[in-house]
Structures are given as C-alpha cells and as structure tokens.
Amino acid sequence: xxxxxxxxxxxxxxxxxxxxxxxxxxxxxxxxxxxxxxxxxxxxxxxxxxxxxxxxxxxxxxxxxxxxxxxxxxxxxxxxxxxxxxxxxxxxxxxxxxxxxxxxxxxxxxxxxxxxxxxxxxxxxxxxxxxxxxxxxxxxxxxxxxxxxxxxxxxxxxxxxxxxxxxxxxxxxxxxxxxxxxxxxxxxxxxxxxxxxxxxxxxxxxxxxxxxxxxxxxxxxxxxxxxxxxxxxxxxxxxxxxxxxxxxxxxxxxxxxxxxxxxxxxxxxxxxxxxxxxxxxxxxxxxxxxxxxxxxxxxxxxxxxxxxxxxxxxxxxxxxxxxxxxxxxxxxxxxxxxxxxxxxxxxxxxxxxxxxxxxxxxxxxxxxxxxxxxxxxxxxxxxxxxxxxxxxxxxxxxxxxxxxxxxxxxxxxxxxxxxxxxxxxxxxxxxxxxxxxxxxxxxxxxxxxxxxxxxxxxxxxxxxxxxxxxxxxxxxxxxxxxxxxxxxxxxxxxxxxxxxxxxxxxxxxxxxxxxxxxxxxxxxxxxxxxxxxxxxxxxxxxxxxxxxxxxxxxxxxxxxxxxxxxxxxxxxxxxxxxxxxxxxxxxxxxxxxxxxxxxxxxxxxxxxxxxxxxxxxxxxxxxxxxxxxxxxxxxxxx
Length: 638
What we know:
The chain is an alpha+beta fold.
C-alpha cells in the first residue's frame, strides 16, 4: 500500500501491524499534514456486524476533542476499504519509555498522570469508556504532552465476544474483574486499568504476573494486589494506598472518577521525595540508551494539567495515535477462550448468568409492564478541613442531604489526609441542600459548612463546600434526637433466596442487616437495588408515612427473559447506549438482551446531547417472555 492514494491521503510508510489490522503514516495532500491511517484486515472488514460497530463507534469517538486524546479526524471508505484517519502523534508510549529509560521519578510521573486523568475524566463525561488502558496506549511527545490512544477499540471488537476464530478481545494483564466476568463496564473499569498501569510505572512490573492465562484471570478476580512497595521499596505508603484502592475488585470500592483518583495521587507522588526507581532516564541516556536531555536542559515541571512538561523519550521519534502492532488491543489465543468457557461453567455457582450479551436482534412488536423511575445524578461532595482543625480532633463527620422530594438523609463520611470526599447518587432536583459538620469526642461541633446545588438529569455535579471552624466559646453540643421508628420493612421473595443477596442499596446508599430489614426514611418515593453475583435488580418503593411502616419485597427471579431496548432520537439518527440497573451493557439501540434474570430492572438509554423524555424505566421482566422497552430521546435543555 506504500505510495497508494486513498481519497486525499497518500500512504508514506507502514508503522505497525497486528492481529486486527495495520497502521500507516500518511500525508493529507489537501491540507499538507501528516496523519495516521488505520485499517482492519480484509477478513474482518467482510464481517458486516464488526463493520457496523466500527462505523457507529467512530461517530462516537469523533466527538472527543481533548488535548490529551489522539483525535479521530475522519472515517474514509474507498471501495471495500475502510480507514480510520487519526491524529499522528510524534512520541513514544510509556511502555517504550520505561523499557528504554527506566522508571520515571515522581516529578516527571506526576504531570503524566495528571494529563491521563484529564483525558479520562473528559471521555467519561462524554459517555466514552476506554476499556483497554495500558502503558502502550499512552503516548508522550518530546514536549511532554500525553496522548491517550485507541479509545473504544475494545468496544468495537467486543469486550467479551470472539472476534476472530479462537480469539477474544482485551489486554488480560490489565483487565478489570468485571471485564473478565463480562457483566458490563463503566468509567470505573478504566480506573482499575489505570491502577494496573500505575503499578507498572512505579515498580517496573505488572500487579499480577503468570504464564498461565487461567491463573492470571483468577488473580484479577480473587487475589488482592501486592503493595507496590513490596516490589519497589521506594514507593511510599501514601502511594501504595492510592494504587491498591484503584485496583479494588469491586467498582464500588475504587475511586469513582478519574478526578478523584488524580486528587489522591498527586500529593502521594509529591510526598517524601518519592523516586520511582534507581535508574533515571537521564542516567540511562548518559550511558547511551535513549536520547534524553541533559540535566541543565530540563524544564521545570508545572502542576497545571494545561501546561505539559518535557519528559524524556527514547530514541528517534516514532509513530502516532492509532492501533499498531505494539499498541493494539492484545488478542488472547484459543486456550484463553477455552479457559473463559471453563470459568463460565463455574459461573453457575459463583457468578450467575450474565444479563448483557452482545447480540442485536429484531424488535418484537409489543410492550409489556413499563413504569417510570427518576434517573440518578452523581453528586460529588468535597471539602478541606479548615485551618486550626486537625484530623485528630474530629471523631465524626456527617453529610446531610436535604432533597426537595426524597427528604433529608444523614450519612457519616470520612476525611483522608485532611480532605473530605463523598460520592452519592440522588434524584434530579433543584435546590438540594448540603451540610457538612464535624464533631469531637464529646459530640461538640468543631466545624461546619453549607452549600446548595442544582442537579439536572444526566449531569455529574461537583460541590466544593467551604468549611469554617466553630470557635470553642460558641461550641454547642450535638443534639441527640429521638430515634425514629422504622417505617420501611424490606423482605425477600422467595424467602429462601434471602441469604444469597450480597448487597442492597437504598437510594444508592448501601444498607445491611438481617431480614426482615427495617429502615427509617423520609416519606416519598425511593429506589432499591440488590445484587446476587453478577445479577442486579432495581425497583422503587413509595413510603407513605414516617409513622407507619411500608412493606416491600425484593423479588429474586429464577427464570430468564428477553428484553429489546429501542430509542427514537428526535431531530437526528445514531444510536444510544443501553444501561441496565445502573451499568452499561455495551450495546447500542436497538439492542436485544437475551438473558435478563426475571424480576424488576431499571433500563436507561444515554446519548451525548440528549436526554430521555420520561426518564429511566422500571420494567418487571417475566421468565420466558419477550419485552420491548421504548425511549424517546430529546435534545438536552440544560
């Protein structure tokens, strides 16, 4: 293909080839600029399903316009040949840099991590999940600008489906547990993969190492990650804690956003003069490995993510931001697929049947059992302990959320390193009142702060609450109110299934106890979620009074139903992403879910720039039935 012209692009040289396709350096003859051309192998282009996913995902990725993401410029079709035209990035990936120059010191690693998190935060806000984040997919230019590449490639190929005979998409050393289980992914999947990447960048090895793919998958699913300091003693306890939390098995136990991870890791990288390893890029360069700058040429490293710094990159300048032989989504051999099948057999005991297979089939003609439920809004509350108040003084911190429709809830939150951060999901509403208070061992108030936020459907709201210390001469003892009687009694149907339920959330807050589970809650409508293995259910309950108990059964279905989700998009075409019980299924509309466990489930469709006219829908899926759920997507008004 060298020298051939496709549209406005003339191929200059081949830069890489892998199991899925080829990557070329080309020149845009119309605009006189260098670009990257990526194309799939001919046998893959002959697959109409894969080709359709490639085209629709390219439309989604084209909306990403961020300085730390390699941009998709054009989708080109010439005859039977399909190309993705990418921004061409002059630089090297982090795997190359570490291999050639050694581990980066903290002052060089910090701005790199800052830019990676900026890219991920932006993409997640746009509803795009990377799914294959690893050092070889993170490029650094000679000027120190980070470019994250290959967004959405794992989704195009299918996270859990076979894409070629005997092969499955993914990069097993970095796969999150939910990817291996094939139970749906979200932004927290990228957090896990970034945790594995950070482990490697600070130790020189991956968190889990094995020649056996079965053993490697088992480690991701069951084994706690080792502390990075057990591999590299120069890693500080603060950095250990951040990386281990990012590698938590459950998405609920990880950092919930890339910004949250970045806020935790930046001070950890700056603590105690941390140095990642004994071999610095500069000393390696002095011995002839790489082309690092001299010490006196080193640019001072800024903290702002908008001002990237020079980072040592080895050897001559290389390729750009597209999938290549070394940067592509790694393909697991047939043996891995056999192992995954074996794990699937074990899933009958450990992981019940997944509910989100990738098949898309014809829409059935009738709708059954559709009710409405409000869509959740992610509310992130942050605060810094005020001057004059030490963490040792504070014994209890409470966050009070005054919601205009669901009432007032009060939770206990923690302060880590003087920073309070709490993520909650609330129903969309205006004028949500937030109050933070801290108490000492005698239940006296030592600080407090208030804020009011507006949370529209589909938004992510961040509220920084200013705190002020309460002078000792005005301190009032915390009022102890009489305990309210339980007004919500939760049970399980069938009752024999009660011991299998692993987690229950009431209005997105985890609750626990023995059945019947009794709660005191404000009158009004509330959301319940519960989980057994990989399966989740969602339902609503309306509490009529704060003085009179309302009983609610959690229905644990045993049969399997089929659900098709379709969406009418006002003023345009395209497809939306289907969400089931608060988790992305990885399917677009119209999509058919073949194996949904019977019971009530929450369905939603997400599409950038649009919102569901009537919000998410709670649907009671019946065993051995076909259910159609329809949404009308309208342009977002706020």
